[in-house]
Amino acid sequence: MKTLKTTLKLIWLLLLVAAPLAGRWFWFHPGSYHVPTIPTVDLAQAAIPTVEYKSYTEQPRVQPARLLVDRAHENNLQIDDLTPLLDRLTRRGAAIKNYDSDSESLASELRGSTAFLVIAPAYPFSAEEGRAVVDFVKNGGRLFLAADPTRSVPSGSDYGYTDLTSLFFPESAVPAMNSLANRFGISFYEDYLYNLKNYDTNYRNVKIVDFAANPLTEGLQQVTLFAAHSLKSDGQALFTGDADTLSNVRTAETALTPAALSADKNVLALGDLSILLTPYHRMADNDRFLSNVADWLSTSQRAWRLQDFPYTFRRPVDLILLPVSDEGDAASVPGVTAPLTDTVELPLSAASFDLLSPLQALFVQAGQSLELRQQPSSDHDVIYVAAYRSLDPLQEILASAGVSVTLVEKKMAAAKTDESAPTATPEAVDVTPTPAPKSTLSIAGVGVFEIAGAQLFLLNQTGAQTSLVILGEDSDALAAALERLTYADFSGCVIQDSLMLCSTTPAPVPETGGSSEEPSSSDNRGDIFILAVDSGSGRSSAPEWEAALSGYDVAIWSVSQDGIPTYEDVTGYKAYIMDMGDYPYDADLYAELPYMEGSYLVIGEQPSDPAYYDGAAPLADLQVEDGTHPLANGLDGTITLLDSNSGTPALIQPVQDSVTEGLSVVLARGPASENAGTPVLFAYEYADLDFRYALASFAFYRLPEELQTTFAVNVVEWLMNQTP
After folding, report:
1. Residue 51 near residue 283, CB atoms below 8 Å
2. Is 117 within 8 Å of 68 (Cβ atoms)?
């Protein structure tokens, strides 16, 4: 009986355990499984997506272009990435050269180039490199900038991370590109474009169908970008995305552009590299766009200057040595028709002819030729080398440039006397010595100079012929002039348009008191140091200062590019300009700047602590208050300023009841400005300290372009003239 009860309990226990399991089974398996009928696939009718390639058959025109490709900034490029573009350029007859770590300075490499390509840089451009590119573009050179979101700083490079962080969180290369692009009013954004409605197989493959009218977009119906940054430019947007093309960073913004030109149309910025690469360049009208880019790069309208020697010439060059003649009758027309015999004095000594070998080698290196001849060929370019006393053949060229030479005989003829004349009683005679007259060189718009120690270089274009005239006092001066050109040494020279005047007199060596120590590296650094305080949001006037002071030895330091300078960095210049542009005043940044020991100008919309001013207000024009002050030379009446780029209001300088000794109010707010009549430019002269200082509360770039050079020269001449 006991056994039966135990058995029943076990049965009930098993039923209690089995009941939930059974219920679960019947709940999820209400019936038996029936195999569904699966229709077969008819492969003959299946629509399989295929990639459509579209090639463009071009008819390139040969152009004598020289292109420089950047390889010196850790560029994130594979070996064949640029092949489609470079092949097109080669078909147009372009010579292509790389700029890398083994090259000379970028300024030297750009001298003979017509275009510069900067693709996917990962390391920023230095201030010196940036200025070289700005100068290159300003003279008509073409600049092509391209980067995209897939080309970050290379992992494992000296400039990126070497651990797993760089693999999962790659460092953006946009700052490196913007270190150059920002100088031309162009900014690349750290984003990517996408379109969720109208795309090519992937939402990041953006279709562009809206193009601006421009030769670069000629013949385009659609281009497809496979990884694109958006851009901002002061110039023309070439591509514009539709209303559904968006940025992952610039939320709620539309009409985004991944391709644009700078305001001067000499810089092309592209936010996508795939359009240049195989096979993506053969999709949509990408191939046609690539050909348009090659045409644009090959047709630079670069203005060749003396500093670009020997690339100044486009044809074979004849070197003509004009014989020296005291009577100035070497020839009557440009070129020498008289035979060169041993009775004719050449402007170069026999020893100086050693300079012609490296000069010819320089021409060969540039892909050109230079031959010594008696007279030039009509289908050649020409270099004339002449002493100042043999200029008759060159008078037409000199006159067209406003150049004239006044020679004074070195030996004075003895006064003739009449022995038969009665001897007069001697009278008191003024024995004050009269300065001996000197031979001079006059240049219209520049001034009059003694020819002693002066070399003159004059570039002239007559029809298809380019001629370069080199003048010097004697054989040594002319030999030194040729050496300058050979080694591109333009120190001690003033350059104005197609004319360059250089000194052969070495700078005086400072007395060291008999010490054998080397002079400090900061001694005699140059004329002007310009500190561009350009950190933050705003615009610097440094490019305008550099252009306006091209005839001076100017060093520019950018805080945003070069960091905070040290005292050693700023020591040794003749005068200083601290340019604040239109950046708002930053007390913390200003406190870090070093003391500049010398006369200086501080200028900007907000050049000082607002606590010392009477607030701020928009500034529209200037009024000359003290027209007699040297800073106001060439300025008159009311000056209407250009628009502010940032809209930062200019500080209002307080009106002083009494002007202290040595202080002048040179400029004031004009009648169209708020707080009209309040000072804008103060100038101080401390005679006892041999020191000058000026403070201006307006951005230099806002001056009308025709007045920028006038005011800039006034400033530096006043600052460097240390004796009031």
Report:
1. yes
2. yes
Tokens coding 598: 């010398």
Q: What share of the chain is helix, strand, coil (3-state, %, to 5)?
A: 25, 25, 50
H/E element, 717:
helix 705-720
For 66-114, write each residue's pLDDT tens digit: 899 999 988 888 878 888 899 999 999 888 999 988 888 898 889 889 9
Domain range 66-298, CATH architecture? 3-Layer(aba) Sandwich (3.40)
The yes-or-no verdict on residue 429 having pLDDT over 70 is no
- Cross-strand pairs, 684: 663, 693
d(CA 575, CA 721): 9
Mark 188-222 as b/e (b = at least 16 C-beta within 10 Å): bbebbbbbeeebbeeebbbbbeebeeeebbeebee
Class of domain 526-720: alpha beta
pLDDT digits (tens, 9 = 90+) for 135-149: 899 889 999 999 988
How far apart CA 294 and CA 281 sit, in angstroms, is: 13
DSSP-derived 3-state class of residue 98: strand
Tokens found for residue 180? 């150059």
Q: How far is it, in rounded angstroms, from Cα 114 to Cα 139?
A: 10
The answer as to CATH 3.30.379 being correct for domain 306-407+439-503 is yes
Q: Which helix (H) or strand (E) holds 497?
A: none
Decide if 225 contacts 193 (C-beta within 8 A). Answer: yes
